[in-house]
Amino acid sequence: MPKFKLPRKSTSVDMTAMCDVAFLLLSFFILTTKFKPAEALAVTTPKSVSTNPAEQKKVVMITMDKKGSIYFSMSDDAAEQKQEVIDKVNELKGLNLTPAEKKSFMRPAAYVGVPFSQLKSYLDQPAETAAKLALPGIPVTDTLNNELAVWVRAAQEAFKGEKMSLLVKGDNEAKYPSFKGVIDAFKKNEIFKFQMITDPEGVPPGTDLYKTREK
Amino acid sequence: MAEMDTSGGGHKKGPGVKKAKKLSTRVDLTPMVDLGFLLITFFIFTTTMSQPTAMKLILPKDTDKPEEQNKVKASGALTLMLSKNNSIFYYEGELEPTGANFKSTNFKDVRDIIINKKKSTKADDFVVVIKPGPESTYKNTVDILDEMTINEVKRYAMVDLFSIEQQLITASEGGAPMPQPGAAPAAAPAAGQ
Questions:
Q1: Model confidence pLDDT, tens digit, residues A39-53
Q2: What is the CA radius of gyration of chain B?
Q3: Bridge partners of B89?
Q4: pLDDT, tens digit, 9 for 90 and up, residues A83-97
Q5: pTM of the full predicted structure?
Q6: Contacts B141 to A, Cβ<8 Å
Q7: DSSP 3-state assignment of A89?
Q8: B10/A21 Cα distance (integer angstroms)
Q9: CB burial of residue B193 (10 Å; 0-12, 13-18, 19+)
């Protein structure tokens, strides 16, 4: 029997190629993605087949969280309108807000989630503590006292003559009555057109829309 | 690749000159690969790739004048009622007093029901009436509106539940005729709209 001696091969692999791939992927991800904006309100939006991207500028956002509490916020590029909104709300509801309290509404990414009765004390809070508070949300389910309608009205007047994107961002688990409250607030202000933020989803094959998009 | 040519210039060193020990310049890249992939994972988890999309919804104006109201032919209507735990109740045409055509389904099968109804009715008469109940979630509402887009239903409306429908839903869900005493009176004022 002849003896075979297998030549011993080194087990170390050249990692250079793998290193190249890893960093190529890394640079790809860094360049193509955007950081998730820090959001105080955790909301998981539902999916839809809609393809048009959500508006980013001059946005008035109504957020609905898991429990169905409503929050009102505006994008930071609309600072002028933001100022007008808080002035208007102050005037409409006679809240006697001080300039400092109004300023706290002007903070970047500020949102309101309290009834008007608590608005003054809420705006008195410094930014750090305000973010941690468990807010009751703006009352909407009571048809006679839909406070969101006042906010929407103020926003509508602030954006007079300008394009305003009204967005509703709701959580999957929010119950329908809160959403209905939001719709009622819009209807009271004669707003019949708004957009809901969703996550993109593929169109199921075989359906009518699928066939239309195929063409 | 990751090594350099260290094999001298080829000239011979004289006798007595100690040859410097040849050090390998080959670097082990494994830790660097590890780091690379660690960063990739970090970026994948912390960033968003897809932009959120927006779904348009246009509401009709509430009106009391009969000439402005949209007429719906009862035969062409499909009423979908959303209830808790992602269940859907539906009936075609008008609700029979006995509740005989009151059926239940779920979000998976509702597409077939819509497609069938769409096929069997004239395009002008077909209308879907969506009635989200107080127990249904926002996701249900968006899903069903999305279903309208998917199946290209041109006419649909969002309406509140009638109290009789609410009663039928509670009855078929809980077995007992009225498991939630609060549910029916809460729906009663909404029925007027």
A1: 667 788 888 888 888
A2: 34
A3: B81, B104
A4: 888 888 888 877 777
A5: 0.70
A6: 176, 179
A7: helix
A8: 36
A9: exposed
Q: Which residue of B has its CA nearest to A183?
A: B59
Q: Is A194 exposed, middle or buried (0-12, 13-18, 19+ CB in 10 A)?
A: buried
**Measured between CA atoms, how close is A37 to chain B, in angstroms?**
9
Mapped onto helix, strand or coil, the DSSP state of residue A71 is: strand
Distances, alpha carbon A142 to alpha carbons A99, A147, B186, in Å: 30, 9, 12
Q: In b/e form, how buried is each residue of A96-129, taking b as 16+ CB within 10 angstroms?
A: ebeeebbebbeeeebbbbbebeebeebbeeeeee
CB contact under 8 A, B111 and A207: yes
Structure tokens at B40: 């990739």
Which residue do the tokens 């929010």 mark?
Answer: A174
DSSP-based three-state secondary structure for B180: coil
Backbone φ and ψ of A61, nearest 5°: -110, 130
Name the amino acid, one letter, at A123. Answer: L
* Reported ipTM: 0.74
Residue pair B59/A192 in contact (Cβ under 8 Å)? The answer is yes
Length of chain B: 193
Q: How far is B120 from chain A (nearest CA, A)?
A: 15
